[in-house]
Amino acid sequence: MRVGVLTGGGDCPGLNAVIRAVVRKGVSTYGYEFVGFRDGWRGPLENVTVPLGVDDVRGILPRGGTILKSSRTNPFKIEGGVERIKENLASNGVDALIAIGGEDTLGVATKLSDLGVNVVGVPKTIDNDLSGTDFTFGFDTAVNIAMEAIDRLHTTAESHHRVLVVEVMGRHAGWIALHAGLAGGANVVLIPEMPFDITKVCEYVEHRFQTNYSPILVVSEGAVPMEGGDMTVQSGELDAFGHVRLGGIGDRLAKEIEDRTGKEARAVVLGHVQRGGTPTAFDRWLATRFGLQAITAVHEKDYGTMVALRGTDIVRVPLIEGTGELKLVQPEQYAEAEVFFG
Amino acid sequence: MRVGVLTGGGDCPGLNAVIRAVVRKGVSTYGYEFVGFRDGWRGPLENVTVPLGVDDVRGILPRGGTILKSSRTNPFKIEGGVERIKENLASNGVDALIAIGGEDTLGVATKLSDLGVNVVGVPKTIDNDLSGTDFTFGFDTAVNIAMEAIDRLHTTAESHHRVLVVEVMGRHAGWIALHAGLAGGANVVLIPEMPFDITKVCEYVEHRFQTNYSPILVVSEGAVPMEGGDMTVQSGELDAFGHVRLGGIGDRLAKEIEDRTGKEARAVVLGHVQRGGTPTAFDRWLATRFGLQAITAVHEKDYGTMVALRGTDIVRVPLIEGTGELKLVQPEQYAEAEVFFG
Amino acid sequence: MRVGVLTGGGDCPGLNAVIRAVVRKGVSTYGYEFVGFRDGWRGPLENVTVPLGVDDVRGILPRGGTILKSSRTNPFKIEGGVERIKENLASNGVDALIAIGGEDTLGVATKLSDLGVNVVGVPKTIDNDLSGTDFTFGFDTAVNIAMEAIDRLHTTAESHHRVLVVEVMGRHAGWIALHAGLAGGANVVLIPEMPFDITKVCEYVEHRFQTNYSPILVVSEGAVPMEGGDMTVQSGELDAFGHVRLGGIGDRLAKEIEDRTGKEARAVVLGHVQRGGTPTAFDRWLATRFGLQAITAVHEKDYGTMVALRGTDIVRVPLIEGTGELKLVQPEQYAEAEVFFG
Amino acid sequence: MRVGVLTGGGDCPGLNAVIRAVVRKGVSTYGYEFVGFRDGWRGPLENVTVPLGVDDVRGILPRGGTILKSSRTNPFKIEGGVERIKENLASNGVDALIAIGGEDTLGVATKLSDLGVNVVGVPKTIDNDLSGTDFTFGFDTAVNIAMEAIDRLHTTAESHHRVLVVEVMGRHAGWIALHAGLAGGANVVLIPEMPFDITKVCEYVEHRFQTNYSPILVVSEGAVPMEGGDMTVQSGELDAFGHVRLGGIGDRLAKEIEDRTGKEARAVVLGHVQRGGTPTAFDRWLATRFGLQAITAVHEKDYGTMVALRGTDIVRVPLIEGTGELKLVQPEQYAEAEVFFG
How does its activity get regulated (chains A, B, C, D) (predicted)? Predict the structure, then answer.
């Protein structure tokens, strides 16, 4: 039995832990051989492989990133892509494929599964917005990094009568902002699910200063003002990937608050720092268990599934469950934490 | 409405986060007043109180320990203890009590509840061995500290052909050892639930050296050799609390391995370092949500309950559930991880 | 004997350690009393004082920021400012003043000293650009935070074929960029002292990709392109303090590299995260020893001096030495590290 | 030109940074080739070599330990050892040798230099007790780890009315204890240079409890009671290396304090955790600059020297300077910090 492994999408602390667990158990318990495919779906598409044995996964548990590297290649957008993948899997003698990735990567996995490829998925998103699993690995690491940044900013905020805005990841879902804001003791948390009222934000900022404390705001990169809530400060041009390059929401918000309240305001945009580096214990534990469960699923020929966390159990759910709807912050979840905000 | 709050047993990162959440929501949402009792059950027993308002809980979220201090006082072991507690609660005008603690503290809470005291429990144990909740706060912090120590030791083990033994907390349950060992990539994990065979441990150590790697062993403080598995190295005398003072299992194991295999072996006993300091994001999030739920339970007069985590939900269960049986590592949970050991 | 203490300018990890050392030794060794002045020179100017005894400095050693708060108030720019300061010092019975701050704060101290005020200075700048001392406290903390960010980014750079630009503090001097870049293994370090050639930077980026590695660039916030080296991407408008608000050099550089090379590029702007939070051991040791030496200088009536580090000794130098020229990165110091760059 | 490199003695964060700097500059600036010798002096003695090119040192800057591994082999204690080393250096075409290590390793280097071997030394000791250099790399990392442990213990000490003893490294010199104790805000620091009076230590402990604070003591592993100051608690047997195996000074001190004062006391023995793991920025900077200077010394044929830090300069001193006397904590250095103790 030969099993292929690939990682797709943005990197995420814990990817290497999944790969290591898959290979370690696959080799020692089931006697499998492995083929690593490079750069996500580009690997099986262009037949770019790397050796993947026990020695190749030694020492990678604490390392961020992915030894298989990653890309956003989508074979369904490439003429004859699916056929080439099938051919390359066959020519490498690959009987089953473990695909580790987010919405896009697992979306491709789902379609390939429907087309007869033996595939097991491992959900991955640092934003924690995949349905079907309580948590995804990488999220805990990101939240801790953001929380530590907020911890550090508290001392500056206290010493300087200054507004501090922390922009964290989360294009569609506010999980990182909500958890890091709650854990870091932020005063305002703005998330994509709930468009914010800039007037109210500024009122709160002024109120906070009157009680002699400097406010810290946490904002998801995907947070947006309410319709009609006009922000004067506009973002810069978009890049090819749709990201605002000069002046994301964090920078704009800081400037808008400064303009409206006259209080000095500064933004910290954590960016890629949140997704690199060594995973936390929780993420290593979760990623390792995901890997163990994925190779067991292969062994049991339970294809078309993805692994998931439910409570403290690792279970399997149909691949489609992980790629259907995004898991968003619900109003009652935001409301639960709101006692600390505003 | 006046609500009393106390913390009992060993300290644990997250206690202050619970206290803060209770007070913040109690004051702002319900308009309650609070009384802090010092040193666990000694507070209401001897009527030692501290002020507990919004200003008193400011800035404590990231701080380890407990602003209410703690003790192991058990009022049921003191003549007239229960009556004095009831009197002191009455004299302070306390309508309900939130007791934050482990098996012992919640055991007292359960009995007091049966005797008519309005009490809500918040489970606390760094060892994660309380039934009725998926996780307890403080555990994630302890596991991360232990994992970071193991991460550091890997480089020494690799540079020196030396056996390293890490003793972690866990007198009855091996959760910290299992999680930290899995997350840190330990080669052997010994837990109280599964008495170990010293001969096999030493065989593994020698095997590992033959393949040119130095082994790292993680051992719970409560791990014991199998019956008949005689360790030559004996522990030192016990102290008044039943703790071995000179030569716990970590030190003994290192010496025994050195004696048997001739390989240099060293122990690191992490001890109190695991339970102090700032909580991780997970523990702050969990402790904060426990606090919010506890004060809501008081508001709903849902006494005799304790709060608990199930998946990502905070629920309430009867107090007795948290104080019945210990939650131990099950054989299949150990077996899941065993592919990385031995 | 009554001694006043104030902190001016931007906050910096270690300020509280200085204050604590001054007060602890002043009280226990010399029997002095202390007056804390709030918000830098605004304190003695407007007579805003806070109590400053042994109890007030308890537990502040590990805390970032300053319990005395800070501002950029300059009494020489205020009508009658100097007289008011002298009056307020007198009315508080203050015999000597310890001023903790950077170029601006110590510049005021120097002038006041010339006008007969008994003042001792403690140099403070996170940028490490004050003459007369080997290092200033806060710098080591900032470098470690920047280095940890670079460590994290390495894994992302390796997994993604992506250029990462890290903007660190340093408006006039490149010390943080140089030390963090050296310690973090950056591939390019751009500092204010040496205007950069954007064409060469891009050539290096492309060269690096050809050898299959993704480059990490560290850039001081004050770095500028060479004259004639035209960057197409312009910065946004300046704020009242002369800071570029939308699009600092980090963001601009990332975009310019992307435009010129076609490689995806991202910037991380660490900002205030570098100056908050708990100080490193080095900074606590240095700040504490600065404080001890400052109060000894007061005891010896050695006014008009500031404390400084020379090797492992704490010495005193005339105040003017700390406020004369900025200490810049010298060409040979940059050249020493250059073997790792480009 | 071919240059040999070896690392001897205990591992220390920064060893890999030295190796990397030596190789990177040696190859790119001077066009040298390198031979790595394994396991300290055992490498050239038994002709155990490893490849050491630019690719071999890639990514090792942040990693603790040493890719060349280490041992305590002393060729002067082995019949014909020196001749074999000379032969093996010759057979490998090695023109010069860079020896990275402490007193023992550099002692061998000094003698070999006298016997005509072209050798340059790089001083290494985590204890910081080598003469001739302001600091050695690894020390700053160890002090930070110890300080973080003390930070964590403060919260437990405050919550529990409990004495906490932290045993840190330092067999002959108290540098780690002094710096970590000062940076961590310890209440008592006991070092090898100044035998302690157990009666006074216990008096202080009781005094501290009367003022309602729990004491934290930091003790070097090599600290000893004063002559005549009889400790009842005896240490356990010694191991082959002269280390006390069960019951070092930390454990003994905790028990003795508990016996004498009746207060609960606990010891934390940090052990190997202090010497493993990633180096701090200071240690990476220092180790890197040591490496750069060492290869420059080779290029200039300045043999029989070792590199050293003086202020912020890297200089060269005769090898004998680093291996003469130990650098101990001087009474005035201890006295400077003593205002915080007792």
Answer: Non-allosteric.
The answer to whether D170 is annotated as binding is yes
**Statement to judge: residues D169 and D248 lie in one domain:** yes
ipTM: 0.94
CATH number at residue D57: 3.40.50.450
Cβ of B61 and A185 within 8 Å?
yes
* pLDDT at B229 (0 to 100): 65
Q: Is B211 on the interface with A (CB under 8 A)?
A: no
Q: Is B134 exposed, middle or buried (0-12, 13-18, 19+ CB in 10 A)?
A: middle
Per-residue confidence band for D235, with pLDDT thresholds at 50, 70 and 90? low
Provide the pLDDT for residue A233. 66
Q: What domain range is A131 assigned to?
A: 2-138+279-323
Instruction: Flag whether A329 is in a domain.
Output: no
Do C187 and C269 sit in the same domain of this protein? yes
Position D338, amino acid:
E
Mean pLDDT for the stretch of residues D169-181: 97
D180 has a chain C CB within 8 A of its CB: yes
Inter-chain CB proximity C339 and D144 less than 8 Å = no
Intervals of chain B under pLDDT 70 = 228-230, 232-247, 342
* pLDDT value of position A246: 54
Q: Tokens representing D105?
A: 């390793």
Domain match, B176 and B261 both = yes
pLDDT at D237 over 70: no
Burial class (CB within 10 angstroms; exposed 0-12, middle 13-18, buried 19+) of A35: buried
Is residue D339 one of the residues assigned to a domain? no
Q: Helices (DSSP H) in chain B: which residue ranges?
A: 15-28, 42-46, 81-91, 103-114, 139-160, 175-184, 198-210, 249-261, 281-299, 319-323, 331-337
Q: What is the pTM of this model?
A: 0.94
Q: Which of C151, C156, C236 sits opposite A272 (nearest CB)?
A: C156
Kindly state whether residues C270 and C290 are assigned to the same domain: no
Q: Nearest Cα to A183, choosing from B122, B280, B100?
A: B280
List chain C residues with CB under 8 Å of A64: 152, 155-156
**Ramachandran angles phi, psi of A309, nearest 5°:** -100, 130
Q: How many domains does chain D have?
A: 2
Residues 6+ positions from A137 with CB-CB distance below 8 Å: A12, A13, A14, A17, A18, A124, A279, A283, A284, A286, A287, A290
Q: Which of D110, D245, D153 is nearest to B265 (CA)?
A: D245
* Residue D193 is assigned to a ligand binding site: no
Query: C335: closest CA among D120, D297, D29, D60?
Result: D29
**Lowest-confidence range among A156-165, B302-311, D37-46, D308-317?**
A156-165
Report the pLDDT value the prediction gives residue B242, as an integer from 0 to 100: 46
pLDDT single digits (tens) C133-190: 999 999 999 999 999 999 999 988 888 788 999 999 999 999 999 999 999 999 999 9
Q: Tokens 């006046």 — which residue?
A: B2
**3-state secondary structure string across chain C:** CEEEEEECCCCCCCHHHHHHHHHHHHHHHHCCEEEEECCCCHHHHHCCEEECCCHHHCCCCCCCCCCCCCCCCCHHHCCCHHHHHHHHHHHCCCCEEEEEECHHHHHHHHHHHHCCCCEEEEECCCCCCECCCCCCCCHHHHHHHHHHHHHHHHHHHHHHCCEEEEEECCCCCCHHHHHHHHHHCCCEEECCCCCECHHHHHHHHHHHHHCCCCCEEEEECCCCECCCCCCCCCCCCECCCCCECCCCHHHHHHHHHHHHHCCCEEEEECHHHHHCCCCCHHHHHHHHHHHHHHHHHHHCCCCCEEEEEECCEEEEEEHHHHHCCECCCCHHHHHHHHHHCC
Beta-sheet pairing, B313-318 with C2-7: unpaired
CB pairs under 8 A between A and C: 135
